[in-house]
């Protein structure tokens, strides 16, 4: 199966899901709790169903790893990694910062990444080795070279409610003190895409899942970002830490994040 076809069908699924999310966003939807602060809405479920059905029309034998339904199909060679609604907390509060994230991985290597922000119509795509695009135009990371001039973005780990707060907060404080500014949008997929197109200069977060980062990290990497863990080790979608930044800033951000006492 050629990557163009994989991308085309993935985009079809993202557009169909995006239409569903936009409709729910201005209408009524039920919200359920998966944990104390972890939400799932009817929109997450409807979006995921549409994505999986659309992919299965063309790729009935491919495996699926999706946030709400987990892993299905025993094909690990060809796998779709899906977040049907990245930014559910925003969505539930009617804050228009959420996305659909769809990645195709072969033998656990992400080959195609698609992130769609249905409110704006912005579609971010990448094919491994072929660069990244926003609405079909090539995109690049920023050229910002000094941390002092950089706008960074992060997410707070959800373990903050129950577990380790000291180290994540120390990292946050160090970056906040060093940067021009730090933002917290609530959608890891969009954070990575906004690094890819240079709106942000760097992004870090921990405790993310494969469906949060699979598409966005390929888009960022193909736009020229360096993607690693906090100690400049290799990043993989099952790794708990991710740092993505333009190559000028990446070493300085590793120093800020990977501090002796963190
Ligand atoms: P979600 O909206 O798809 O759940 C924001 O920091 C990132 O963390 C988002 O990508 C968000 O994805 C994810 N996230 C939100 N709530 C979470 C939770 N309770 N546990 C783990 N990840 C969560
Ligand atoms: Ca997510
Ligand atoms: Ca989600
Ligand atoms: Ca979720």
UniProtKB/TrEMBL annotation:
Keywords: Hydrolase, Magnesium, Metal-binding. It catalyses: a myo-inositol phosphate + H2O = myo-inositol + phosphate. It is an enzyme of class 3 (hydrolase). GO terms for biological process: inositol metabolic process; phosphatidylinositol phosphate biosynthetic process; signal transduction. Its EC number is 3.1.3.25. InterPro entries: IMPase, Inositol_monoP_metal-BS, Inositol_monophosphatase-like, Inositol_monophosphatase_CS. Mg(2+) binds at residues 67, 83, 85-86, 212. GO terms for molecular function: inositol monophosphate 1-phosphatase activity; metal ion binding. The keyword Translocase does not apply. Its cofactor is Mg(2+). The keyword Hydrolase applies. PANTHER family: INOSITOL MONOPHOSPHATASE, INOSITOL-1-MONOPHOSPHATASE-RELATED. Belongs to the inositol monophosphatase superfamily. This is Inositol-1-monophosphatase.
């Amino acid at each position: 199966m050629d990557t163009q076809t994989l991308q085309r069908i993935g985009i079809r699924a993202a557009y169909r899901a995006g239409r569903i999310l936009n409709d729910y966003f201005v209408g009524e939807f039920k919200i359920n709790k998966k944990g104390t602060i972890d939400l799932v809405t009817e929109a997450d479920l409807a979006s995921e169903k549409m994505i999986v059905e659309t992919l299965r029309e063309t790729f009935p034998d491919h495996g699926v790893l999706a946030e709400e339904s987990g892993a299905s199909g025993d094909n690990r060679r060809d796998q779709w990694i899906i977040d049907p609604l990245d930014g559910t907390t925003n969505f539930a509060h009617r804050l228009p910062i959420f996305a659909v994230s769809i990645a195709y991985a072969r033998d656990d290597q992400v080959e195609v990444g698609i992130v769609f922000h249905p409110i704006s119509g912005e579609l971010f795509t990448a094919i491994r080795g072929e660069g990244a695009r926003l609405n079909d135009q090539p995109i690049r990371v920023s050229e910002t070279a000094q941390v002092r001039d950089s706008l960074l973005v992060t997410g707070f780990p959800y373990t903050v409610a129950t577990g380790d707060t000291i180290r994540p907060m120390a990292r946050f404080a160090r970056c906040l003190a060093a940067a021009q500014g730090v933002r917290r949008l609530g959608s890891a997929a969009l954070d990575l895409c906004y690094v890819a197109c240079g709106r942000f200069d760097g992004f870090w977060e921990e405790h993310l899942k494969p469906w949060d980062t699979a598409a966005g990290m390929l888009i960022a990497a193909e736009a020229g970002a360096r993607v690693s863990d906090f100690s400049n080790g290799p990043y993989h979608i099952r790794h708990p830490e991710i740092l993505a930044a333009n190559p000028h800033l990446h070493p300085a951000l590793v120093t800020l994040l990977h501090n002796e006492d963190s």
